[in-house]
Amino acid sequence: MSAREEILARVRAAVADAPDAPPATRDYRTTHTAPERIVELLAENLADYRALVHRTDEKGLPGLIASLLADRGSATVLAPPGVPPAWLAALGPGITRIEDNPDSTARELDLVDSVVTGCALAVAETGTLVLDGSPDQGRRRVTLVPDHHICVVRVADQVVGSVPQAMPRLDPTRPLTWISGPSATSDIELDRVEGVHGPRTLEVVLVEG
After folding, report:
1. 189 phi and psi, to 5 degrees?
2. What's the domain range around 191?
3. Taking every annotated instance into account, which residue ranges of this chain make up the domain LUD (predicted)?
């Protein structure tokens, strides 16, 4: 008998008469945030991660998106095919919509000024946006390569308090991307650099009503 087998035999003998473990209870809290605080907490945590947060309603959304793109000086904007046409209905003549072509290379996407997408969920306690590749979010590449990302969050049905509340609502077979603020990293001297592996500027539009 090897030393390993001897040790395992001793463990089995020691617990042979032990009672069965009680069933695990799942009555713990799934969130520490009161429902009336969830949206405000999301906005605070997004801003803490250096995302730019905007609030509007469905009626004001097209004008706000057009204003954000104009303020950015964007000449081109990419929107996945599932983005509602109304979102981009107010674009000025100086902004061209680029269709999402699956054959586009990273270099071609890098020439796009901005991308506008929806999201799957937003998590208030972590300030996180979750994208799952649905038609209004597109392929992961289109949200990682362009330097400016506008993400639209429908407050009524897409904001949850915590990660435990988010997990049952997400499909684990889909390509989930969890975004907490603009892309950033730090070197050994803790100098922060943004835009390394994703957009340098993240703007989040919270649509209420």
Report:
1. -95, 10
2. 37-208
3. 93-207
